[in-house]
Amino acid sequence: MEDDHPPPAPPPPPPPPxxxxxxxxxxxxxxxxxxxxxxxxxxxxxxxxxPAYILQDISFTAYPSQILAIVGPSGAxxxxxxxxxxxxxxPSAGSLHLNSHPISPSSYRKLSAYVPQHxxxxxLLTVSETFTFTAHLLLPTATKSQISAVVSALxxxxxxxxxxxxWCAKGLSGGEMRRVSIGLSLLHDPGILILDEPTSGLDxxxxxxxxxxxxxxxxxxxRTVVLSIHQPSFKILxxxxxxxxxxxxxxxxxxNLSSLQTHLSSNGFIxxxxxxxLEFAMEMLDRIPECGKPINPHSPPSSPVHSSNDHAIExxxxxKIRYKSSRLHEVLILSSxxxxxxxxxKQLLLTNTLEALVVGLVLGTIYINIGYGKQGIQxxxxxxxFTLTFLLSSTTETLPIFIKERPILLRETxxxxxxxxxxxxxxxxxxxxxxxxxxxxxxxxVYFLVGLCATWQTIGYFVLVIWVIVLMANSFVLFLSSVxxxxxxxxxxxxxxxxGFFLFSGYFIGKERLPxxxxxxxxxxxxxxxxxxxxxxxxxxxxxxxxxxxxxSKSCMLTGHDVLRKRGLHEGQRWNNVYVLLGFxxxxxxxxxxxxxxxxxxxxxxxxxxxxxxxDSRAMVHVAPNDRMHCKAIPRTSFVPLATVGFDIxxxxxxxxxxxxxxxxxxxxxxxxxxxxxxxxxxxxxxHLPVNISxxxxxxxxxxxxxxxxxxxxxxSSGALYPKTPASRICSCEKDLNNKDQRIKTxxxxxxxxxxxxxxx
Length: 761
Fold this sequence. Notes:
Layout: E1 22-31, E2 35-39, E3 44-48, E4 52-62, E5 67-71, H1 78-85, E6 93-98, E7 101-102, H2 105-111, E8 112-115, H3 127-138, H4 144-157, H5 174-186, E9 192-195, H6 204-220, E10 224-229, H7 234-237, E11 242-247, E12 250-255, H8 257-266, H9 277-283, H10 308-317, H11 327-344, H12 346-366, H13 373-394, H14 399-414, H15 420-450, H16 456-483, H17 487-503, H18 519-524, H19 526-539, E13 546-549, E14 556-559, H20 560-566, H21 574-605, E15 611-614, E16 620-624, E17 642-648, E18 677-678, E19 701-705, E20 713-715, E21 721-723, E22 750-752, E23 755-759
Parallel strand pairs: 5-10, 5-11, 8-9, 9-10
Antiparallel strand pairs: 1-4, 1-6, 2-3, 6-7, 11-12, 13-14, 15-16, 15-23, 16-17, 17-19, 18-19, 20-21, 22-23
């Protein structure tokens, strides 16, 4: 008789999904102030205007499984607030918290996804291929079958399954393209989804479909969704859980639609029956009083926020940004994707191939059997010069491709999908064989018809030089496409620079006849080294061959060595020119990398205010410049900056014993420092510090005029700013702070409740 075995234990329930509650506390953002310099005898005095607030004292909470819509007219500050929420811009004051913990921008970007207003998708890939390539980069350990399953499930969730084999360039409506952009942001499973006007430019049906998709994602995945919208219709309002109504950078209401109607009724407004509360509020923005405090729901959201996430946030905030794929894996996937795009660009392939073949044959028939003598020497020089002009100008056809691809590249790299360097390496690996084929076609079609030096060494060297030239030109165009704002500007840059390089190549005027102040351009010209390489290759095998004979004496007047010597060349420079051309090829790609990094940095740190960070990660400090700090005409000896310090002490506790009093402002009698007064009406004496610090978030701003000098600053628990020694290293007037990249030079240390604070770049 068989023993009865107990039934197997049921599998453990799946862990609860990670959820994130996003809280904004008194967020403010100011525009850079302007100055009107008035010249004097020795320096310029400055008059300033008060700072203009784009956002002022914005507070709200966004919960998991809910959609928070930021609503307001144009210019209300919606996009600026979204940039702050996406960690693309740092606020002038206030703070962001995730599950009640301060946000680290680097780790926060890994937990969130930002979907810009304008869609960007590679046009020569299908919807399924677009998702598959991105999934390979974000899920490097997954198998092909697993990635296929993930992509299929996501397409079904987005209601795009029937469009999986449709090219992104055609066949997709605006709403479907918007859902593709949303889906790409969901592949790394972000906890917070931030969207800039996802319904902009869509018809009512497409807009409602997009909002339904977002609502389904928020509920099924327990995700926090924050979006901006200009003026939602009644159908779209049914998909929105909470509204943040903005006007002129201030909060007029934070809550649901019914609470907005209550808010309007309490202020004496009657909503007409033909309008909903939000439509009526949008018409009465100037008359609705500002909301004093955000209306927070008393009941928890449908998907609770688990405390285990809090520890995860703290751990992730200490992590350095890591990409999910190795560099090798990124290069392989990006190379595969780029090969597919190049292969499908059949017009470009056909054009480049026919150009190389036809131009080579035409030149070969024009210079056929070129011969020697003075005419042969001149014809060779003309042939090589035209070859350079054709090769360098023909690569400009790729300029519009690079410029169109740039927004997608910046979006993917700024989102952490892959590294910029991996893209450039993959781009290089794809163009190496492609341009080698073009070089061989051109070289074979022109070389033997013209009758150039017929040795395998010179033929191979000629093909190599042609290959390096087109690679260098491709790298040059890639660099210009990274800095040019538009295709027209890029084309103008290419034409002007190539014309300048050709002018100083030595073909029209030799280096010895150039003015001294233009000689440097001769060495910067790409044409110079390519032309020298071709001449050395041709005449190095004609070193002893007599090219010009004296008619009467039948003596040799000119050999190949003499031709090279007249141009300041010799046979030993054969490889030096190739090395220089390869150096240009690498240089332009490195410059392209820096230009793209610069673009990404500007998109993340646009109008970033002057900031401080603390060695204690629980404290957050921000410093706003005074109106005169960007006035670079003020002499440093009389420069008087005004520092405004606001700090968040929500998670800091003082020691149980009595804190030491902060030093008095008159401690150093050699200083001339004005009295320091908190902006809040409640002033705490610097000699009596509180033992415990309240856990409530109470940002305050304090001001102090500081004389030029050098030393440290100290911040008392009351918030006042005390100089211990003169503070020359607080700032300098060397650059204009209207320049977004300007930073205050150095401040060594500050003390916030005995916590060291140092400047961040």
